[in-house]
């Protein structure tokens, strides 16, 4: 995980990732590879060690978008109604926030919801 240099609010995660370590150059800077294949240079002070157990890629479905949000009454955990890529809306499913491998769809959902609410307030 690496410090998010583009973080604009306290609500956003402080670290982004995960990244794959490619190498360390002579100056001590680490070369990292992001999930999209892009390489990044980061100083050791901006990195945080993160261990993620291996995921069986055969069982991972890709999120197209998040349709709705709710909070579980029993656990007080965030739940998201997920529309899966390559599947119909009949397969939409409520997923706990802790079950997401990537928080990007959640961040996108809240960003779009905030924009939608600000548009409705101006009407």
From TrEMBL:
InterPro entries: Chromo-like_dom_sf (IPR016197), Chromo/chromo_shadow_dom (IPR000953), Chromo_domain (IPR023780). SUPFAM superfamilies: Chromo domain-like. Residues 61-121 form the Chromo domain. It comes from the Eukaryota. This is Chromo domain-containing protein.
């Amino acid at each position: 995980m690496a410090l998010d240099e583009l973080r604009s609010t306290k609500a956003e995660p402080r670290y982004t990732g995960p990244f794959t370590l490619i190498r360390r150059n002579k100056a001590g800077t680490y070369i990292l590879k992001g999930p999209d294949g892009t390489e990044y240079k980061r100083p050791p002070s901006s990195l945080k060690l993160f261990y993620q157990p291996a995921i069986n890629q055969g069982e991972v479905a890709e999120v197209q978008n998040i349709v709705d949000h709710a909070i579980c009454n029993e656990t007080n955990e965030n739940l998201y109604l997920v529309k899966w890529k390559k599947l119909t809306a009949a397969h939409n499913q409520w997923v706990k926030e802790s079950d997401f491998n990537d928080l990007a769809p959640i961040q996108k959902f809240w960003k779009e919801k905030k924009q939608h609410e600000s548009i409705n307030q101006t009407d």
